[in-house]
Amino acid sequence: MDGNLTILINSVDVTSAEVRRSLNVSRTLTRESDNCLFRVRDTAAVIREGQEVQIYVGTTAQILFAGIVDMAPRYPFAGMQAWEYSVVCRDYSKVFDYRRVAEAYLDKTAKYIIEDLVSNYVAGAWGITTTNVVTGPTIEEISFNYLSPASCIKKICDLTGYSWYVDYEKDVHFFGSEAKTAPYEIKDDPDFSFFNYSDQRDMAQIRNRVTVSGGKFLSPPFTDTFTGDGTADEYELTDLPHNISILEDSVAKTVGIVNITVPATVDYIVDYWRKTVTRTAGNLGNLVVLSVTYSYHAKVVSQAEDSDAQTALVALEGGDGIREDRIIDDTITSVPEAHAIALSQIRDYAYAKIRGSFKTFEDGFDVGQRLTVAFSGTDYNGDYTITSVNIRCVQNGLLEYSITFAEKAMRVEDLLVKLLRKSDITATESGEGIDKIKIVEETIEFVDTNTIQTDTYSATTWGADVDEFKWGFAQWA
């Protein structure tokens, strides 16, 4: 076992059975789960998936990790006399993967949507709270077609540039920038001991022009106009029509569907696949104006770029400065959503970022904290965000912390103001439908009464007329 640690699985203390130096905890900022690995030998407790895990430094006052057992394969050891479990855990965000969300939201704040997701799609028995969910921006339109709650919140983060995680007390954090400061600064004469420091400018991830290709959406109403010539009764439309209406010289006409509607009961018949409308009464009169208004399925495509970032890259490496990327996601079903995703990519990746790392035995560092680097004689000084913390036992309960950090992205508000001046966003209706199917038992009783008229015939009967003949129920004359 590793001294100075307490490991509980379903409230059972298994600390004494933990294999020495097997513990490894990985914390990441937002979009990935915190993970924990350790091995347990010869324990009376049966370890299985779904059990809760809490790991503390010393007593239960300082928590190192809490979550759910994700996997626990076991292997025999000591001549089949006992089992060793390789325990793989995830933080409480794991319970956000159990259900599937089929919802659409219009003009709702991020806080409203997240609270609704937790209330309706995360089992209340887990005790998940939303105390640290900030209001965030109002989202014009977003839909989730059978995504997990975790994927839904990640999609909100992609749209807004915010971050999220579930803490070890089961509370959801959703934030633009949490005002947490690292316990120490990185500087020439530091107040703590660290080693293996490195930093670099990351050019590989730059993309300053992003095109997002999504699925299809139902377009705003579009009108095809024709002028009668006294001979034609069929007209071909520009696209496959939905929600069709027809006017003749501004007078509304009735519309039916080919092979479904009786032509005599309507003024026009629509053939969807041939993209035609046919006048049931015959040719359209000379110079009569026919207006056919309908919606059609259009492909979602949106592009965003940052010309200032491109100019800055030209100064660094020459060329035209354009780094282009394309995202293809058929679940994106509106232009505003596609544009928001393109903007979020520009926000995160338009400029080269400074990234770095170091190791220490000092605790107190956590993801999301603001870390100040203040070396003398370097261009990389400034405030950074801690993006991951990896913790492992090295000896006798001594914990080694491997810290990575990165330059903070541009503030969301600044980016939107900057880009909206040079971007034309077209609002459209979403064409995605959310189907909800619930299986229920229903008993239906049918009562059917039939009257059967019978007749009695011999096997073969001749009628009065020589040409009449009956055989069973068949006869001819």
Structure notes:
This protein is mainly β and 477 residues long. Among the domains are: 5-90, Roll (Phage tail proteins - horseshoe like beta roll fold), CATH 2.30.300.10; 99-175, Baseplate protein-like domains (Phage tail protein beta-alpha-beta fold); 186-203 and 352-408, Elongation Factor Tu (Ef-tu), domain 3, CATH 2.40.30; 220-295, no CATH class. Helices cover 12% and strands 42% of the residues. The chain has helices spanning 110-121, 149-160, 307-317, 335-349, 412-420; strands at 5-9, 12-13, 24-28, 35-41, 52-57, 62-71, 74-77, 82-90, 101-109, 129-133, 138-147, 163-166, 171-175, 186-187, 194-202, 209-218, 222-227, 234-236, 242-248, 251-253, 255-257, 268-271, 276-279, 289-295, 297-305, 324-328, 353-360, 370-374, 382-395, 398-407, 460-462, 469-471, 474-476. The strands form seven sheets. Strands 1, 2, 3, 4, 5, 6, 7, 8, 14, 15, 27, 28, 29 and 30 form a 14-stranded mixed sheet that branches. It has a four-stranded antiparallel sheet with strand order 17-24-19-20, with no helix packed on it. A hairpin with a 2-residue loop joins strand 1 and strand 2 (12-13). Helix 1 (110-121) runs antiparallel to helix 2. It starts with a strand and ends with a strand.
Q: Features of this protein?
A:
477 residues, mainly beta, Phage tail proteins - horseshoe like beta roll fold, Phage tail protein beta-alpha-beta fold, Elongation Factor Tu (Ef-tu), domain 3, 14-stranded mixed sheet, four-stranded antiparallel sheet, 42% strand
List the helices and strands and how they pair.
Blueprint: E1 5-9, E2 12-13, E3 24-28, E4 35-41, E5 52-57, E6 62-71, E7 74-77, E8 82-90, E9 101-109, H1 110-121, E10 129-133, E11 138-147, H2 149-160, E12 163-166, E13 171-175, E14 186-187, E15 194-202, E16 209-218, E17 222-227, E18 234-236, E19 242-248, E20 251-253, E21 255-257, E22 268-271, E23 276-279, E24 289-295, E25 297-305, H3 307-317, E26 324-328, H4 335-349, E27 353-360, E28 370-374, E29 382-395, E30 398-407, H5 412-420, E31 460-462, E32 469-471, E33 474-476
Parallel strand pairs: 10-13, 14-28, 16-26, 21-22
Antiparallel strand pairs: 1-2, 1-5, 3-4, 3-29, 4-8, 5-6, 6-8, 7-8, 9-11, 12-13, 15-27, 16-25, 17-24, 18-23, 19-20, 19-24, 22-23, 27-30, 28-29, 29-30, 31-32, 32-33
